[in-house]
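Page 47, continued from p. 46.
Same chain as before, 315 aa.
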Amino acid sequence: MENTPPNTVTKRNLEDIADIRQSQEWQSYLAYLGWHTCTTNSQKSIYYRGAGPMVVAKMQRPPALTERELNNINDLAQEHKFSYLKLEPSLKQNLKILEQSGFSASFSPLSPPSTIFIDLTLDTNNLWDNLSSSAKYSINRAKREGGIVEHTVNPTTKQIDEVYQIIRTTALKQRFLVPDMEDLKTKLQLWREKFILSVSRNGKGQVFGVKIFLAHNQIVWFMHGGTSNEGRKTKYGYLLLWDAILKLKALGYGLLDLEGKDDSRFPIFTRNWGGFSHFKEKFGGIAIEYPRPYNKYYSKLLQALNTFYRHKLPL
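Result:
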């Protein structure tokens, strides 16, 4: 640890990152999706909405909660009539106080439970050195084959239109949630200059791959991506991510969250993640495993069912 350069990201200082799901933009985005927001006395966001006869709530990656804040959350749950609350804890959360407050571990995450962070404060040579040999070969091959990458901060809706079908087709192929065009346009309107579009093309200008990044507090999250059928036959995907890393670094961002890798704790949730997890791992970075999500049941019916399922209610 003594030999770690002062600006280098470590697992320890990753514990203090401010997650994008606690940002004002995310709150506005969820409002577009029909969620309401309430905030704790310490300004941490809880999102809730009706679901038939229930009111479901979620709290995603808030800074570590204290006992006092958990009591405040109980008051908000009573005020807004939550049926249950799903909490996805931060890396620094004391899990013991969650369990003492009545939370029980859940086996159904909402956000990627594990991820890889790329330290953009490293110089370009160090970033390159962190790549696997096959990633370096693939990047150089894509360059030899005429691959080019374009980056746009705050792109136009026309630019999003051009790449949307590739994003949609890829999401369907990988059995991910498919964002509609209005979803992407809403994100663009909310994040604006913190919305970065990266596109790879061949020498004829055909789009082979796309990545969309959203930023918050000097950290960037990979949110959407896709590869065309032609692009899958090439190594352009490696060039696309590598060039995006360099662009995000040049824009002054300090950290890139590749937003998800496979996780043996959640084999169903991450069952189709093996391929792209292997791809991400070739770029080096720091692998992080978040704590399991936790649920607290406020509905008497859900409390009874949770007891019946021996605290393994599938929610």
